[in-house]
Amino acid sequence: MKAKSTTFRNMTSASLLGLGLLVASQASANECELKIAATDAMQFDTKELSVPATCKEVTLTLTHTGTLPKAAMGHNWVLTKAADMSAVATDGMSAGADAAYVKAGDTRVIAHTSLVGGGESTSVKFSTAGMSTTEAYQFFCSFPGHWAIMQGSFKIQG
To answer: Parallel, antiparallel, or unpaired for β 137-140 and 33-38?
Structure first.
């Protein structure tokens, strides 16, 4: 009887270890997936986003939790170096809504979503290659007039 008990205990330990590794790998993948919400009051629900340096690719999902249409209160999510934010936002205004207020081919833009209205969501997947744990990054909404209020920091954590 003792042999069966030991075998069962070893199988249970192995199963728990396997389950722990599965959960750890899922948690690691989820660290590279971010969610952010924007409202009709021109606010993001957070002022800071971060991912571990181990994330080679990040997926960000933006949800517009308001009800106003895209033409009146559209939102997007744009990521740049902090030093480039103001210039990218200013240049984006002339790009227009069809371009999500992001100038085509702007190499200062690390990533951006499309423009969404109330009740809509959009996602962007981007590489962290070339990004640094020591660089200051900012995210913002480039809809005209929004970027001064709707912004926050983005960090790669080492």
So the answer is: unpaired
pLDDT tens-digit series, residues 29-42: 599 999 999 999 99
Q: 115: closest CA among 75, 59, 148?
A: 75
Q: Whole-prediction pTM value?
A: 0.82
Q: Following DSSP, what letter does each residue of 99-111 receive, concatenated?
A: GTT--TT-TTEEE
Q: Which helix (H) or strand (E) holds 62?
A: strand 57-64
pLDDT per position as a tens digit, 99-153: 999 999 999 999 999 999 999 999 999 999 999 999 999 999 999 999 999 999 9
Q: CA 122, CA 115: separation in Å to the nearest integer?
A: 8
CB atoms within 10 A of CB 80: 24
118 HSE (CA, 13 A, CB side): 11
Any residues with CB less than 8 A from the CB of 31 and at least 6 apart, and which?
A: 51, 52, 54, 55
Query: What is the C-alpha separation between 109 and 91, in angstroms, rounded?
Result: 11
Helix (H, G, I), strand (E, B) or coil at 96: coil
Confirm if 73 and 150 have CB atoms less than 8 A apart.
Answer: no
